[in-house]
Structure formats: C-alpha cells, structure tokens
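queue> pop job 88
queue> type: inverse folding (structure -> sequence)
queue> payload:
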C-alpha cells in the first residue's frame, strides 16, 4: 500500500475544493456590505451554484461542492427567516463547536479521531509514509532509501483483490503503542482546539452583531489555518510511520544474517 498525499486532499475536496468552499461566504460578506441581506443571500447562492457547475465542467470531485450547496442553502434559509445577516453564520458556529467537542471527546476513550482517520487512510505498520517529504510525496522518497514496503507473498490471500495481496496485520496495534497514541492525541487536540477556537471567535462576533468580522474570521480561520494543520499533521504522521517501520526492518535484517 503506497500513501499519496493527493488521497488525503481528495477526501477534503482538494486544495481547490477548500478554496471554492470559501467563495459563497466571501460573496455574502461583500454583497451584504454593498447592498442588504437580500443581495447577500442571492450572491451566496449564485456563488455556490457557480462553484458546483465549474467543478462539473472541470470533471472534478463534486463532493465538496454538494456539501457547500447544502450548507449555503441552510444558512440562507435561516438568515432569510430571521431577517438577520449574522444568522447566515449560525450553522457554521454550531458545526465547528460540535466537531471540536467530538474530537476532544474521542481522547477520553483513547480513540483519538485523527489517529483513526490517519490509520484508515495509510496504516502506519506498512511504513507507506516512512519516505515522506513535505515538498512532494509522489515518486520522490527520502534520500537514503525507498519507502518501506511489506514483502508481498507469492500467492494472493483468499478474499483479497485480484492481483493485489492482502495487507499484513500489524504485530502491535497502533492503539497499543504509547508513542502513537500520544502523537495522535496531540494532533486531535490541535484539530479539536482550532474548531472550538473558530466557534468561540465567531460566537463573540455573533453576539456583538458584527457581520463583517464574522465573515472575516470565517475566512481567515478557515483555509489558511487548515493548510497549516494539514502540513503539521502530514509531518507528524510521516515520523510515526518511520517509527513503526524501523523495528520490523531491524528484526528482519537480524533474522536474515547467516550464522557465523
């Protein structure tokens, strides 16, 4: 199994998907400031629809666009019913608070969600990210060796995909490795803390009815902060993969050494 950073980005809609997700909010802020709530609502709706159509034309993943359309539709309905521009951001505030609580709550049962997601995308015992470098992950391993790969058995295991042997089970589950749990725990604190920070900052501006600052904080604490979080997360996960890959590699070399 080979890790590819594009797999992670695709799950998030890609970098362009994250940028596109910010456009309806930006359109609402600008239009509401120039005109009124009605103009802002229509600007947000038009921006969301255009993003959806552009991704269709470019034949890109529309998962992010569909979720964006749904979120904008709910936000628009709430704002239109209450007549308050600030209510356009209510859904986002509630969502950020809920995600933050769930992430931090996962630590109480020693199941850090960042670890659950990371291990599902690229199991650390396979060492797929052990040669990871931040500038590029595709076909450019660290100097000194290729990414650690498990030896493929000659015959495929029954029930596995044709032409692809089944991945080996880990000797030690990542949740039984204190270093893994600790690292994934801190990453979960990072992500959960940022979600709660967004909710807290926007909650203050909501209570003060500062629509402009609400939108600005939504954009500033959105894509730029998420990009930094992703870079940190990929760097830490790469180190964890090297940590998990080192012990099997050393053990295997000792076993293969001929007796004197």
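queue> result:
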């Amino acid at each position: 199994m080979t890790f590819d950073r594009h797999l992670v980005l695709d799950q998030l809609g890609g970098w362009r998907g994250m940028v596109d997700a910010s456009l309806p909010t930006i359109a609402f802020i600008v239009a509401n400031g120039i005109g009124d709530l009605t103009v802002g609502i229509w600007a947000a709706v038009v921006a969301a629809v255009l993003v959806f159509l552009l991704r269709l034309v470019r034949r890109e993943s529309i998962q992010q666009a569909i979720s964006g359309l749904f979120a904008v539709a709910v936000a628009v309905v709430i704002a239109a019913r209450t007549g308050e521009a600030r209510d356009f951001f209510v859904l986002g505030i509630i969502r950020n608070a809920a995600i933050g609580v769930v992430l931090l709550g996962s630590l109480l049962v020693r199941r850090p969600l960042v670890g659950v997601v990371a291990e599902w995308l690229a199991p650390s015992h396979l060492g797929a990210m052990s040669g990871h470098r931040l500038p590029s992950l595709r076909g450019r391993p660290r100097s000194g060796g290729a990414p650690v790969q498990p030896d493929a058995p000659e015959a495929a295991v029954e029930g596995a995909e044709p032409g692809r042997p089944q991945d080996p089970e880990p000797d030690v589950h990542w949740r039984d490795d204190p270093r893994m749990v600790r690292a994934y725990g801190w990453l979960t604190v990072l992500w959960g803390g940022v979600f709660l920070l967004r909710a807290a900052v926007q909650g203050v501006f909501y209570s003060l009815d500062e629509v402009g600052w609400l939108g600005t904080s939504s954009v500033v604490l959105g894509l730029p902060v998420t990009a930094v979080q992703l870079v940190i997360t990929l760097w830490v996960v790469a180190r964890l993969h090297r940590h998990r890959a080192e012990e099997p590699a050393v053990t295997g070399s000792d076993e293969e050494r001929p007796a004197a």
